[in-house]
From TrEMBL:
Transmembrane annotation, as ranges: none
Protein name, per record: GH16 domain-containing protein
Signal peptide: 1-33
Domain GH16 span(s) in chain numbering: 62-271
Taxon lineage: Bacteria, Bacillati, Actinomycetota, Actinomycetes, Propionibacteriales
Biological processes per GO annotation: carbohydrate metabolic process
InterPro entries, sorted: Beta-glucanase-like, ConA-like_dom_sf, Glycosyl_Hydrlase_16
Amino acid sequence: MKHRTARALATRPTAALAAALLLGLSLVGAVRATDPAAVGTSATGSAVAVAAAGSTSAAKKFGWGRPVAREEFNYTGAPRSRKWGVYDSPGHDDNGLRRPRAWHVNGHVARVVGNSRGVTGGMSARFGNRRYGRWEVRMKTNQRDSEYHPVLLLWPDSGDWPCDGEIDYAEGGSDWREIHFFLHYSCDNSQESETRKVDTTKWHNYAVEWTPDGIVGYLDGVPWFRDTDPEHQPPGPMHQTVQLDWFPDGTETTRSWMKIAWVRVYDVPTG
C-alpha cells in the first residue's frame, strides 16, 4: 500500500503555522469522566487503569530505561503550550481546518475530535527532539468515519520535506481495523510500508526505534516493521506529532475522535 503524498504535504509547517504554534491554546468540550477508557498514568509513574488486558509496552519489554522526555496528560484543559504547538491552520491537503479547540485534556488523556464539517486537530511536540531515539505512544480511536485518519509520526525539525524524511509509525486509513507504517525518504519521497490488522478502538502501544542500524516499528511490544537500509535514514533530528487528518470522499462525514494516554521518549545507545 502506497502512502498518500498529499497527507504529508499538509503536515509541512508554513510560516503562518509556525507563528500560530506560539499562540495560546483554546479549550474544547471535556471527555466524559464516566468513560472507562479515560484513565492514564500520572507524572509520578503511579499505576492506574489505562492498560488494556494483554497489551505490552516495547519500552518495558526491551528495557529502554526511563523516559528522557514525556507527556502524561495529568492536567485539565488545553494541551500545555510549553510542550505542544497546536495547529491552527488549513487541514490535510487544504481540506477542512485544524483548530486548537478540537483538543481537550481531561486529567488522564488528551482527546482530539473531528466534526462533521472537517474541523479537526493536530499538534507537534516541543520535547524529545533528537536524531536517533525511541518513541512510544498509547492511542485509541472510536469506530471512526473512514474519512478521518489518526496518525502518530516523526517530522523533521528542519521542516524540509520530503528530503529530510518522515516516519509515520502508526497511521490509520479508511478501515479502523488496520494500522499502517510508512517510512518516507529521499527528495523523491520514496517510501517503505507495512500494514497490520488491529482493532484501533482498543488501547494499543505504538512505538518506533530509530538507531544508526535502522528503524523498527512496534505494536504492543511486537516488532512489525523493520528497515536497515542506511540510504533510508532521516538525515537530522525529528520530533513527535499527533494528528487526526480528514480525507473527504464526497460522502457524509460523521464526528470521530482519537485519544492519547501518554507520549514517552527514550534515548538509544549510539556509541
